[in-house]
Structures are given as C-alpha cells and as structure tokens.
Amino acid sequence: MSDIDIISQYRDQFVTYLNKRNQLGEPKNLYEPVKYILALGGKRMRPILTLMTAEAFGGKVEYAMDAALAVEMFHNFSLVHDDIMDDAPLRRGKTTVHEKWDVNTGILSGDAMLILSYQFFESYPTETYVELTKLFSKTALEVCEGQQYDVDFEIRDDVTVPEYLKMIEYKTSVLVAAAMKMGAIVANALQKDADAIYEFGRNLGIAFQLQDDYLDAFGDPKTFGKQVGGDIMENKKTYLYLKSLEKASKDDQEGLLHLYSIKPDDSTDKV
Ligand code: GRG
C-alpha cells in the first residue's frame, strides 16, 4: 500500500467519525455554518497526525478520535475568524462563512466551534482530560499571539526573518505540534517521547507554513482553494517577501515594497 493510500485510510476513518459527531441542531443560524465549514473538506492533516501519532505509541485510532476532532474543530474555527479578519472570499475553493452568511454569524459560529472543540476532551479520563486541556489552552493562546504578530507585521516594512519565523511558529506550527502531542498523550506515551514528538510537529508546522506562503504566491488557483496572491494584497509578511527583500539591492527593495503594497483592484497582472 502506498503512503497516500495509508493517509487516505486515516482520513476516511476520521471523516466518518466527524460526520457522525457533526449533527448539530438548533439554532440553525449558529450551527449551519459549523457544519458547512467542516463539510468543505480540507486535507485533515492535523487530525490525521493525531491518529497516526497515537497509533505509533501503541494507542488505538478509535480512542484518539475525540482528540483529533477537537484539533480539527479548533483549526476550522481559526479559519472562520481568519477569513473574517482578512475579508477573504474563498476557503477550500468555496465561499467563506462570513460571505455566505454575514460577519456576526461567522464570529458567533466560530466562538461556538472553539467551545465545542474543548468539549470533545470530556470523553477522556480526568488525568488525560486535564493534560489535553492544558496543552490546548496554551496552544490556543499562542495561535492568538501568532495571529496578532501577523496583523502587526502588515504595517511594518522592517520585519526580520527571525520575527517572521516566530510568527509562523505561533500562528501555525504550535497547533500541528499539539495535534501530534495529543496523539501521544491519549496513547499514554512517556513524557520525553511526547515532548520529542511535539518538537517534531513544531518543525513540520514551520515547513508547512513556508509551503503555504509559497502557494499563496505561485499556487494553482484551481487547486489552492484560496485567492492566489491574497497574502501579498494584505501586505502579509511571508518568507518569500522577506527573502526577496533581503537579497534585493536598495533600488530593487523600493520596487518590491511597491509591488507588495498593491491594492486588490490592480493585483491580477502583477502577482
Ligand atoms: C486561538 C482564540 C484564538 C483565536 C484565533 C484567527 C486566529 C486567532 C488565528 C488564525 C490562525 C490561522 C488561520 C493560521 C493559518 C494556518 C494555516 C496554514 C491554515 C491552512 O491550513 P490547511 O492547509 O487547511 O491545513 P485545510 O483546508 O487543508 O484544512
């Protein structure tokens, strides 16, 4: 069986479980957007990592499902709020929640998703519950901090590569790291192994965000799922931007700054 087939098996198992648990009822205006964003798909990378890590440490995939679900619910919540902050039109190739409904609905449904994600931990014994909740709270706060750095950097033209790396570590990679560590926790792995897998996930998350930044500039609009060039239009400080700036001569730097400050209306031919 190829690696792709193995990953697909985890994904199928996870999506079956997600569909079973994603049966939210009233009020419809609160829960329809939750069901909508979760049904849009996505790679399901984080929950797959939770399941695979649990199994690698001798745990059962079924037992790790609620932790995996918490991570995916949280990830989707952060996308809904991120799309509001960026006023993004597309997510996973489809209309974003705040565009399909409205901003207030997106905020409240996102809030509900954040709470729901914590509730999935309730199925675990107290000790595991406490450990998962502590890790999750630490992670959520770091994601918030990473998002704030990202926003702060939009109006700065002197962001350094170490600053950028710290921003993506918090915004993106800590959740990947936590997803893996949660798999280790539910499988009762040794503390040192759980910490080692967290470190692995942290580096994987950084590499993942570098690729996401690259795809924002050069991805195929048909498969990228988001608006290509969206980060550039928002004046986001991506690695690509910083490295181009570092290498550029003084004159070119001015040109680059101009290029990266383009407004949405004149974006298409310059990106
Ligand atoms: C944590 C309280 C609290 C607030 C959230 C909005 C926000 C603060 C943070 C946004 C964080 C964010 C959206 C980071 C980007 C992460 C990222 C690379 C998303 C894309 O992930 P993929 O490619 O998406 O795995 P799919 O569609 O495959 O699920």
Automatic annotation (TrEMBL):
Key word Metal-binding present in the record?
A: yes
Cofactors named for this entry:
Mg(2+)
Q: Which GO terms describe its biological process?
A: isoprenoid biosynthetic process
**Keywords associated with the record:** Magnesium, Metal-binding, Transferase
The reply to whether Isomerase figures as a keyword in the UniProt entry is no
MF term (GO), any: metal ion binding
Please state which protein family the record places this protein in.
Belongs to the FPP/GGPP synthase family.
- Write down what this protein is called: Polyprenyl synthetase family protein
Organism of origin is: Flagellimonas chongwuensis
Q: Which span of the parent protein is shown here?
A: 1 to 271 of 327
